[in-house]
Amino acid sequence: MRPRLGWIVSGLLLVALVITGVWGYNQYMQNLDYNNRTSNLYEKSFYELVGYVSNIETELSKMMVSSDQGQNIKMLSNVWRQAESAGSNLSQLPLRHMALDKTSTFLSQLSDYCRYLTIKAGEGKPLTVEEMENLKELYNSCINLANELKVLEDSVNNGAISWQEIRDKGNQSLEDVSDDLVTKQFTRIEETSIKYPTLIYDGPFSDTLLKPKKLNIQGDNIDYKEAEKIAIDFIGRNRVEKASRGAETQGTIQSWGVYLETNDGEGPLYVSVSKKGGKVISVISEGMVQDAQIDYKEAEKIAKEFLNKKGYKDMEITYGQRHDGTAVFNFAFSQDDVIIYPDLIKVKVSLGTGNIIGFEALNFLTAHRERTIKEPELSLEEARKLVNKNLDITSERLAIIPSQGGDEILCYEFKGKFGEDNFIVYINADTGKEENILKILNTDNGTLVI
After folding, report:
1. Are 213 and 346 in contact (CB under 8 A)?
2. CA 68 → CA 64, 65, 241, 391, distances in Å?
3. Which single residue of 3, 325, 344, 418 has CA 20 to 30 Å from 386?
């Protein structure tokens, strides 16, 4: 009897061991698949970044010797688009610290400046000597950036860089990871003098919102499973076929990454969810852009309804741009009929399906809070008298705008026309100082703010 019992026990132990082994192997394979997918994404983003910067350098070099207005428009447009794409790929790299800030800002401002010049040239206005000098500075800075990226590219090709190790080290401080090649090289880039003109922005005041701020997210910490559920619910369960774990980030807001395969051909989507409070920080689409089936106004309505549905109430559109089958809208929070520009959210809509394929709420999550808006020292009538008489005022209201130092300023916002041009003038509601002037360009692709 006892020998038989021993055989049974041994058999059960063997079965348990086999089950454990199979489970462990499956876990190993899943982890390996996850690591391969994230490494492939990082490598793809890096090589595309290198390619875009190289193309930008080429286009800017042609600008230095071109004297044809039509060619200038074409080349400026190419730089505008490719700098925007380069910045997007840079943001996908597993480096979530100050080593990327200056490079990211450079690419963003390069894109914005060339967009401004494209529109100006398209209106038949020649580039000034000063603008050509600015382009020359941008070209020289781009050469430096391309050379530094070439060093990194050689290291990647030689197998000296493991994106997986870089991602894992992303949880440490810059000083702790300063021995890895990627961080060293981007630190060199940050220390290189990159100069660029600040002339045009992604909507009113969005460039001043790039500076890190104190986190205002409330709530408990969540685990990955909770983040995955939040991501699926945010996109819509009816759109999601499969979810898998993405990279964690340790930037301004620590977050979980979730990959969502969709059934509409516009995925995969990468959703970043904050570890504290479980807020969706961003949504990025890696899918193909589809041909437009809905118009710009319908897309604007969809974006507004989406924000309302997700609990972002009292948001007003401040800026919009259409590009390659998509439309991107900036929304700012409104409190007591005062528009608050620091509380910014961006929504990207597919003009092919009307689906949400992009979302960015970092500024809102870092700036939004309960505010006590005090009565201004100046009345509306007093502030109006301080506006240049040449401006034919069409609307006026209170607004909170960010300063270059990161503070907030209560202003009167006056929109108006001078000739055929549209402007916004901001008068400090307490001191009467003219804080800012923006020029509005209405184009076939949306609104640009200079």
Report:
1. no
2. 11, 9, 51, 35
3. 344
* Contact residues for 2 (Cβ-Cβ < 8 A; gap 6+): none
pLDDT at 197: 42
Q: Which of 45, 58, 119 is nearest to 87 (CA)?
A: 45
Question: Rounded to whole angstroms, what are the CA distances from 59 to 95, 137, 153, 273?
Answer: 28, 14, 21, 37
Structure tokens given for 55: 């193309």
Note whether 328 and 358 are within 8 A (CB): yes
User: Residue 300 is inside which H or E element, if any?
Assistant: helix 296-309
- C-alpha 380/C-alpha 386 separation (Å) is 10
Three-class DSSP category at 413: strand
């209405």: which residue's tokens? 442
Pairing between β-strand 392-402 and β-strand 338-350 as defined by DSSP bridges = parallel
Peptide bond into 376 cis (omega under 30): no
3-state secondary structure of 446: strand
pLDDT along the chain (450 residues), means of 10: 58 64 56 57 81 88 80 84 84 61 75 79 76 84 83 75 60 42 56 44 52 67 96 95 83 82 85 94 80 91 97 93 85 96 94 93 89 96 95 96 83 93 93 89 67
Q: What distance in Å separates the CA atoms of residue 166 and residue 184, rounded to the nearest whole number? A: 12
Per the listing, tokens 């793809």 go with: 44
Written as one string, the DSSP assignment of 11-34 is HHHHHHHHHHHHHHHHHHHHHHHH
Identity of residue 54: S
DSSP 221: B
Angstrom distance (rounded) from CA 101 to CA 162: 22
- Residue 319, helix vs strand vs coil: strand
Question: What is the model's pLDDT at position 163?
Answer: 67
**pLDDT reported for residue 214:** 55
Alpha helices in 340-424 (DSSP H): 362-367, 380-384
Number of H helices, E strands in the chain: 10, 14
Residue 410 and residue 435 in contact, taking contact as beta carbons nearer than 8 Å: no
- Do residues 108 and 196 touch, judged by C-beta distance below 8 A? no
Computed from CA positions of residues 27, 32, 33, 34, in that sequence, does the dihedral angle turn out positive or negative?
positive
Q: Which two tokens stand for residue 129?
A: 């000597």
Could you give the CA distance from residue 223 to residue 425 in angstroms, rounded to a whole number? Answer: 46
- Sign of the four-CA dihedral 33, 35, 36, 41: positive
Domain residue ranges of the chain, discontinuous segments joined by +: 28-199, 224-367, 380-449
Helix axis angle for 101-122 and 129-157, nearest 10°, is 140
